[in-house]
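Q: For a teaching session next week I want to show students how multiple molecules come together into a single three-dimensional assembly. I've collected the sequence lines for a complex. Could you give me the predicted structure tokens for the whole thing so I can convert them for display?
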Amino acid sequence: DAKTTQPTSMDCAEGRAANLPCNHSTISGNEYVYWYRQIHSQGPQYIIHGLKNNETNEMASLIITEDRKSSTLILPHATLRDTAVYYCIVSVGNEKLTFGTGTRLTIIP
Amino acid sequence: GAVVSQHPSRVICKSGTSVKIECRSLDFQATTMFWYRQFPKQSLMLMATSNEGSKATYEQGVEKDKFLINHASLTLSTLTVTSAHPEDSSFYICSANKLGDEQYFGPGTRLTVT
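A: Of course. Below is the structure for the complete assembly, covering every listed component.
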């Protein structure tokens, strides 16, 4: 599986959009981009995934660049409960997930 | 969404004893279950992959005789840490997925070996 690079940490004001970047320059054509988050001392929670097209669900939007070498997870209106570590993972299928260090997102009141 | 439970949520055991952790998919049948370990301030590390009725596949560096995995049914997998030592103290997390669907993670089990 391809590796990903994410900023170690980010802050975002409550109510604003949180934009979390991820670089995956070695992604293969059949690899999806998955985003999970982990709130302290809990199991990871699935957020969203995509292959080529931008995706949106009730939690977030995923923007994938045309060359697929990077993506951005957007939380449109961040709340304090969105404070967590966010993991960007690339994988052929949703089988073997390799977690990197992720981005620690802190929502500031 | 699908729900995965783990039991117990916390366990403290003495060095040299064995501990069993259960992982259940509550409202779906899981084709595959996964076991991860997470040390403080570190990321999740995959330990093993298990499919119902077959032997688990362990990741490199994970001792299969120490971490026994049993996947007896499509809704239950167990991880037994045998002869536990303080260095086995960690946060153990399982996940399960349906074919073609995302992985659903359990809430984790915090193991402390004294």
